[in-house]
Write a structure and sequence with these properties.
The chain is of the alpha+beta class. The chain is about 55% helix and about 10% strand.
Length: about 500
């Protein structure tokens, strides 16, 4: 009987122990399950927030970003959204004591590394399809057409011609002093008077060029059907604020200084290497932004977007002016090489120089090359005139592809026919690509400028007037504190766009 009592006590004790253990296990499992559920809920909340990416930016530019300012409501609005989602997913048994965003990585952080990465990772391209390889092929990488050797040849030619003229003038003076003949002096005076009259009638192309420059050369080149935006960008709120806003020094169109003209032939060079190394960015810009001759979207803040990428001015007109000057710098150098290698054209320049500077012959060789430079610039103007109207222009010209005379500015329409698919050479957008290649990292900042302008443009579907690129993030962390039955779970979850 006593033994039966011991057994009963023992079994009772064992039952209690088992109940305690079971209760403890159930509690541990419950807490563990609660923590797992909390982690899953936090992960779901961050994923849900990732899904709130800026759809305008993604749909148009294929760039993923989250507006940490939540459309002007502030980062706290995002934290509140995640808090409410956690409450909904976890239920009444859980209390959310704190949700805080941290560890954010901005699209513009670390010299725009996140933006560059998305361009490289997400943009599938074939360089040949978007013109970069074609530009390299058609220019043969010749991004400095006027070499130091060519300029030395010009100097040598001028020196030789000047020496020959001075020699002839000395012999002429010697002959005149030996001949004390009234009839000879009268003949000489008559010859000088004839030269004066011919010089007075001769047209200096530099004068005509000045008239057109003073009247507004870029405006003359702009096609009649071109539509410029009336919007003025607020540069102070853009990602590129304060970066690379300097204006390129244009060609000196007075053409009175040989040294300055030689200096102008060396500007806007060195783009060949950048075309290869910055290929992804250049192709991206060609694909996603408007230009004068390539309008992709009707609802942009600026109509001439690629021109903005080059010039960085606050309006279409100023950007077009700058682009025209920069293209003319490139074309001027190439055309100058062409004209000084053309003996017929140089002979024309020499004859005109002899008329214009008849009173001081030793200066004629210098004026001849200045006139050649002026003519090369006039040809460059014609090149741009044709390109903005859809034509392609051979990068290196010869006598068969040269189109102008020295008085062509008054009749550029004479050279205008309908563009043909058989035209070879480079078009306006190709030159914009070359100019973009010269801009370095500021090109990326200006692309973000345009995205921000368009994404915050009032009246455009999907836009948000409060959107700023400085608030764009691609990675963020969430610190959340969840309480379940008195037990606190401190959870950290990181999310980002891969």
């Amino acid at each position: 009987m006593r033994n039966k009592g011991y057994v009963t006590v023992f079994l009772s004790i064992m039952l209690v122990v088992m109940l305690i253990i079971s209760t403890a296990v159930i509690h541990v499992v419950d807490i563990s399950g609660a923590k797992t559920k909390s982690v899953t809920a936090v992960r779901s909340a961050t994923s849900n927030e990732l899904a709130n990416y800026n759809r305008f930016i993604f749909d148009r530019y294929h760039i993923l970003l989250l507006d940490s300012d939540a459309g002007g409501r502030g980062q706290g609005a995002l934290e509140e959204e995640m808090t409410e989602l956690l409450k909904e997913n976890l239920g009444e048994d859980y209390q959310i004591s704190d949700v805080e965003m941290s560890g954010q990585v901005g699209l513009m952080d670390d010299d725009l590394s996140e933006f560059k990465k998305q361009i490289n990772d997400n943009f599938i391209y074939d360089a040949a399809d978007y013109g970069v390889n074609e530009i390299l092929d058609k220019t043969n990488g010749n991004d400095k057409p006027v070499s130091d050797e060519t300029l030395n040849e010009v100097d040598n030619d001028i020196a030789n011609e000047k020496e020959e003229i001075e020699k002839q003038e000395a012999e002429k003076e010697k002959e005149e002093s030996a001949e004390d003949d009234d009839s000879q002096r009268e003949a000489d005076e008559a010859e000088k008077e004839r030269m004066r009259k011919e010089a007075a009638e001769a047209k200096d192309p530099r004068d005509e060029l000045k008239v057109y420059k003073d009247a507004g050369l870029a405006k003359m080149l702009l096609p009649e059907d071109a539509e410029l935006s009336e919007n003025i960008a607020d540069m102070s709120i853009l990602p590129s604020a304060g970066k690379g806003s300097e204006t390129t020094e244009a060609v000196d169109t007075d053409f009175k200084s040989l040294d300055r003209m030689k200096l102008d032939t060396g500007k806007n060079t060195g783009w060949g290497k950048n075309l290869a190394t910055e290929g992804e960015a250049l192709i991206y810009a060609r694909k996603y932004f408007n230009s004068l001759t390539d309008q992709k979207y009707p609802d942009t803040y600026l109509n001439l977007e690629k021109e903005y990428l080059v010039a960085g001015k606050d309006n279409d007109g100023a950007n077009f002016n700058e682009v025209v000057d920069e293209i003319l710098l490139i074309r001027f150098a190439v055309n100058f090489v062409c004209i000084i290698k053309d003996s017929v054209k140089m002979s024309e320049c020499g004859l005109l120089a002899a008329l214009l500077i008849w009173f001081f012959p030793p200066l004629q060789p210098v004026v001849k090359y200045l006139l050649a430079g002026c003519w090369a610039y006039i040809e460059s103007i014609a090149d741009v005139y044709l390109m903005v109207r859809g034509h392609k222009i051979p990068y290196i010209k010869d006598s068969t592809t040269w189109v102008t005379d020295m008085e062509s500015l008054s009749h550029l329409d004479d050279y205008l026919d309908e563009p043909s698919d058989e035209e070879s050479g480079l078009g306006y957008d190709d030159y914009l690509t070359i100019l973009m290649a010269l801009k370095g990292d500021v090109l990326y900042y200006r692309m973000l400028d345009l995205m921000q302008m368009n994404a915050s443009m009032e009246g455009v579907q999907g836009s948000d007037t409060s959107f700023r690129m400085k608030n764009a993030i691609t990675v963020f962390g969430v610190n959340a504190t969840v309480v379940y039955k008195g037990k606190e779970f401190d959870i950290y979850e990181e999310a980002g766009y891969e």
